[in-house]
What does this fold into?
Amino acid sequence: MSEKSIIQVKNLSVSYGNHQVLKNLSIDIPDNKLTAIIGPSGCGKTTLFKTFNRLIDDTDGIKVSGEVLVNGENIYGKDIEITHIRKKMGLLNQRPTPLPMSIFDNVAFGMRLQGLKDKKELAAKVEHYLRLASLWDELKDRLHAPAAALSIGQQQRLCLARGLAVEPEIILGDEPTSALDPISTQHIEQKFKELKEDYTIIMVTHILRQARRLADYIVFMYLGEIIEHGPTDEIFNNPQQKLTQDYVKGVFN
Amino acid sequence: MTNKRNSFRILADKLSGKVFLTFAVIACSLILLILAGLSFKSYPLLKHVSLFKVIGSSIWAPADGKFGLLPFILSTFLITILATVFAVPVCLLASTYIVEYASNTVRNLIMPVVDILAGIPSVIFGIWGVLVLVPFVSFLGKTFNIATEGYSILAAALVLAVMVFPVLINIFTEVLRTVPNDLRDSALSLGATKWETISKVIYRKAAAGLFAAVILGFSRALGETIAVLMVVGNSPLIPKSIFGMGYPIPALIANNYGEMMSIPMYDAALMTAALILFIIILLFNAAGRLVLIKLEKN
It folds into this structure.
């Protein structure tokens, strides 16, 4: 690949007990692009995704072999400090997961962990990231209300602001709009379009049209293997594999 | 035939709701019935002395007609609070290990053991208390030069703490398990360590449930009788320290009900003690519920 890649997966296999979920995958994820991982349920896209920030480690009975390089550094290497890996990547879950604290504290959470104590600086940064997620105007008067009181759409944007506040290089979205109404979905999609100028975004999605609308690069997975990957145009208009062709046409699901 | 059958079905349907209501009302009214019964039985004493005087007085001399319940009330609270203070941290950390750190295999080994603990009759805990905890408290007394017989508030609190372990661990683990994994993932992905995730996010998310578990454990401890009675010394004086003897209300009732009934008012005094214990538990549960509602709102 001519372009610079930010994540390189090399011979990655993952299994739970006797069940092999990912079968010897290798792929380069391009830098500063929005990459969408698509494929039918159970194809291993979420598993692949969870290997990027090693959230997979906490699963009982999991075995990972192979390498995942982030900026050239193998995150499964021996001397790797996990928190250092994880804060390079902001995570958006399927359903928004506001932390059980105020709106302000949600955004400040990661920064505080990193040792930022100065109240003025913290307040300024919280404002900055809430603005970045287009939430500031809606929420500036109730920053100290519990985050759980927000609408689902606002919660998801809050999670985005919270993730951005730890200054990641990569944003990971695990079907980030699947629990949202159409308008909130549009908000998130709009944000992703803006953010991909400055960040690498990797998202898992079930919605083909969403992948087509947003993604620059597509990874198509089936039964734990990567069937095909390439620029969005090519995957949708000129797929090389029969399986890909069928999938993007909606022949099977 | 069909019509008859149909009308029977409809009748059964109409009746069912009312029947259920009746049983629900019976179950709930038991509380009122018990309260009324206890009040009625304590009336002979309360007719002469006010409830507040009974609660406030520390002289227990039934032969002279003096029925001060303060030593018993204080013992009850001291033992229960102390037991909760001992049990909650241990159980919270144990439950955290079981839910957050242990593998499935380990978890499946630990939980049955906890359940066995729950099934041990309290008299066995009492014997264990007499054989192990009472000597242990004596030993502490000797080591630190504190006067104690071994039979003490401290021994009772330790027995009770162990007895509420299974209740607390079971509910704590249930509560911690209800915290969604996505929330853990979110905190971790913000760069939190596992311990930061647990202490700053999971405990907070689970706070209401954890608190409810503590209330349940506390209520259980308030009423526990046999095991406590066996190790507490049963001395009707205001406890001087946790190394001194105590005499909680359940032990007072269990030791004396049905005996010494020739002493006038004795029966009524024991019933007053029972009434007070009952009211304490009611108030405690009500207060707990209020706090719970407040916690859940956050």
Summary: The first strand of chain A starts at residue 5 and ends at 16.
